[in-house]
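Justification of computing resources. Each target in the renewal requires a structure prediction run like the one illustrated here; the chain below, 78 residues long, is used simply to show the kind of job we budget for.
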Amino acid sequence: MVLCREALLRVAGGPELFLSMRGTYTASLAAASMAGYVAGVGDRHTDNFLVDLNSGALVPIDFGQAPSHICLSPSCAV
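Resulting C-alpha cells:
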C-alpha cells in the first residue's frame, strides 16, 4: 500500500515541488471536506477522490451525489 506522502514524493521530483504539492493537497482536501459537510454529503471515502499528480490537488469525483437534473450523456436528452 502506497501512502499519499510517498506517492507525492515520487512524482514531485524534488523537495520544493513536494512541499508545494503537499500544500495544494492539504488546501483542496480542507475545501472539499467543508463543501461536503455544508452540502450534507456523508459518504466520504478514498474511492470518491482523485489526486492531480501535476499539482497535488484533490478532485472530488462522487457522481452518486450529482443532482439528478444534470445529465451530460446524449441518452439523457429530453
